[in-house]
Design brief:
Bound molecules: adenosine-5'-triphosphate, magnesium ion
CATH architecture of the largest domain: 3-Layer(aba) Sandwich
Strand order of the largest sheet: 6-7-8-3-9-10
Number of domains: 2
Length: 247
Amino acid sequence: MLEVRGLRKSFGGLEVLRDVDLDVNKGDVVAILGPSGSGKTTLLRCLNFLETADAGSYSFDGERFAMDKISRRDIARIRRKTGFVFQSFNLFSNKTALQNVTEGLIAAGKRKRQEAEEIGRQMLSKVGLSDRQDYYPHQLSGGQQQRVAIARALAAGPEIIFFDEPTSALDPELTGEVLQVMRGLADEGMTMLVVTHEIAFARQVSGRVIFMDGGVVLEAGTSSEFFTAPREERSREFLRTLQERGA
Ligand SMILES: Nc1ncnc2c1ncn2[C@@H]1O[C@H](COP(=O)(O)OP(=O)(O)OP(=O)(O)O)[C@@H](O)[C@H]1O
Ligand SMILES: [Mg+2]
């Protein structure tokens, strides 16, 4: 479904991604792991064209694009098939949960208000927030806000959803409800690419793991391989550090 070859990105003189290759098949849940600063967020942002890569070939649903030269129109077309969930939720503070979910659908001119609201209610129900549709973000817990953000991503009917550390801004007792929603999506066959420090989630839900270090994919494989027999010393060290921190 998504195939990337030779993705490169620098900020000023700093090379942040070097020759990253990535394959995601329909229904895959891929966890992206790696130490802070290794380029995980930059990779996701390049994949959704929130950043422009310096080089790379991008194939989505059989169409191929040069990542540094892709047109706005093609970006818009790809974005319609992709969802993005940010670490910091990025909800509109002056809109209710339901309005946050429907806003994009109505603004894009894809749906009439009534239709959008119907979809919005369905998606809020899916993330367990039917009773919170008229609440504003400041009236919701972090876990609830992130679930609204997931409902918003789902409302557009994406083929793949990118998550950037969806639980790392949350208190530990709120991460479970968000991970449970994500686990449900995985069970339904949603294709997901998830940057996470939640090792239990990566181990239990993701089929494949990409371990990044210093802007390169150091190791990629099935999660059972990665967690039971990581090939690279850096991967082993990373897993040890997480275990020591009790993750
Ligand atoms: N807009 C930017 N301008 C300049 N440098 C940037 C920018 N965004 C990221 N970087 C640099 O790129 C490198 C990778 O950052 P990135 O945010 O992708 O890492 P990460 O793996 O997501 O880290 P974390 O786990 O802390 O979120 C870092 O050295 C960072 O300082
Ligand atoms: Mg990051």
